[in-house]
Amino acid sequence: MKIHEYQAKDLFRAYDVPVPDGNVAFSVDEAKKNAATLRGFPVVVKAQIHAGGRGKGGGVKLAASMEEVETLANDILGMTLVTHQTGPQGRCVKKLLIEAGQNIAKEFYLSLLVDRATASIVIMASRDGGMDIEEVAAKTPERIIKVQVDPLMGIQGYQLRQVGFALELPGAAMKPFSQLLSNLYRLFIANDCSMVEINPLILTSDDKVIALDAKVDFDSNALYRHKELMELRDLDEEDPLEVEASKYNLNYINLDGNVGNIVNGAGLAMATMDIIKNAGATPANFMDVGGGASAEQVENALRIILADEKVKAILINIFGGILRCDIFAQGIVEAARKTGINVPVVVRMEGTNVDEGKKILKDAGLNLTSAVDLFDAAQKIAATVK
Ligand code: ADP
Ligand code: MG
User: Fold this and answer.
1) CATH value of 21-101 in 3.40.1210.10, 3.30.1490.20, 3.30.565.10, 3.40.50.300
2) Are 1-20+103-238 and 21-101 in the same CATH fold?
3) What is the pTM of this model?
């Protein structure tokens, strides 16, 4: 689960990771009120959306006076901000962070993330901060240093110094930086983060280190341990269909193809997406109704996929194990009755009670095409959307 920069900075404050003074604003009036509490100008007006690259997209601007705060807040609030991370449709800006402008001597990159390959927390840092780190990684990977932290040992003093030296920080900034990194690590572990990124981390002209940007991603599987963090969730920033699916415990991810698919089991869902692609079509979603889905869940899954305008056909691929084929078929019939299926549907069903399931579908008189196996299903669905 991602959170906004202003929320991440509140969390940073709670762990003594230095950030500029600032406050969130939901209106132009509030933006001016917040600016008045800061010590002078410049003040930075920052769009709050769950995507990076806001600066380049025109969502981060410096104001030299209260009039400029007003103009910028007016411009940025409500704008559709397009960055390399939002996709071409962009994101509507609904809140701003009004922050004290900092005197930047140097910008660095610093992040912590979970590295599954080495089962460790990796610290990544670079002297090339402020810019696209993806570009640095692609063109000059040697300019990014990586330090692995054993989660059982925790971060060690020598590792803090190792990163500080690699960033070639001045002597006076070494201790504050070590404290910052050690506090950031503490925050990371205590909140079950999957990623924390500061880009840029700045060095000021008086040798202070400050997090100028803040990105935090929590491990969603651990959120049940952090009720207070769940309150930071912003549904405005999530795909409405994905939010709807999460209410029914459906594992749904919206993709850009036009073949909707409903599958029981994540592995089977991956295989189904592969085979759709192999047949020359593109999946519109990942939808795993789960091994033990109820008829109601199947109905919700179909309703959600039908609500997606991209979807031109649906492939239903069910292996009846814990979820029996007859239960599944009932869900489909219910959904068809309530929502009306208005796109071609290909069904491949195997496993427990398959004959009962097929009979239920047949008796319902729905306009479904049945497939003998997964390969046949993929061919039929690809032919339909072509
Ligand atoms: P994004 O990564 O989404 O573009 P950032 O928060 O990194 O957004 O801001 C973009 C740039 O704006 C930063 O690299 C920095 O140069 C400048 N900036 C951001 N916040 C401040 C601030 N408080 N004071 C001065 N400059 C800032
Ligand atoms: Mg940034």
Assistant:
1) 3.30.1490.20
2) no
3) 0.85
| Ligand 1 site, residue 128, Cβ cutoff 6 A | no
Taking each helix axis from N to C end, the angle separating 66-76 and 28-37, rounded to the nearest 10 degrees, works out to 140
130 within ligand 1 shell (Cβ under 6 A) = yes
Rounded CA-CA distance 302/362 in Å is 18
Closest CA to 297 of 331, 261, 344: 331
200 CB under 6 A from ligand 1? yes
Task: Assign domain 239-385 one CATH number from 3.30.1330.30, 3.60.15.10, 3.40.50.261, 3.40.190.290.
Answer: 3.40.50.261
The fold of the 1-20+103-238 domain, in CATH, is D-amino Acid Aminotransferase; Chain A, domain 1 (3.30.470)
Ligand 1 centroid from CA 55, angstroms: 6
Domain residue extents for the chain: 1-20+103-238, 21-101, 239-385
pLDDT, one tens digit for every residue, the chain (386 residues): 999 999 999 999 999 999 999 999 999 999 999 999 998 999 999 999 999 999 999 999 999 999 999 999 999 999 999 998 888 889 999 999 999 999 999 999 999 999 999 999 999 999 999 878 889 999 999 999 999 999 999 999 999 999 999 999 999 999 999 999 999 999 999 999 999 999 999 999 999 999 999 999 999 999 999 999 999 999 989 889 999 998 998 999 999 999 999 998 899 999 999 999 999 999 999 999 987 778 788 889 999 999 999 999 999 999 888 889 998 898 889 888 888 888 999 999 999 999 999 999 999 988 889 899 999 999 999 999 98
Residues involved in catalysis: 109, 197
Q: Using CA atoms, how far apart are residues 93 and 89, in angstroms rounded to an integer?
A: 13
User: Is the shortest distance between the CB of 211 and ligand 1 below 6 Å?
Assistant: no
Residue with the smallest CA separation from ligand 1 atom 18 is 212
Ligand 1 atom closest to Cα of residue 199: 7
- Closest ligand to C-alpha of residue 52 is 1
Instruction: Answer whether 244's CB lies under 8 Å from 292's CB.
Output: no
Give the position of tokens 């991602």.
Answer: 2
Residues 289, 327: Cα–Cα separation, whole Å: 13
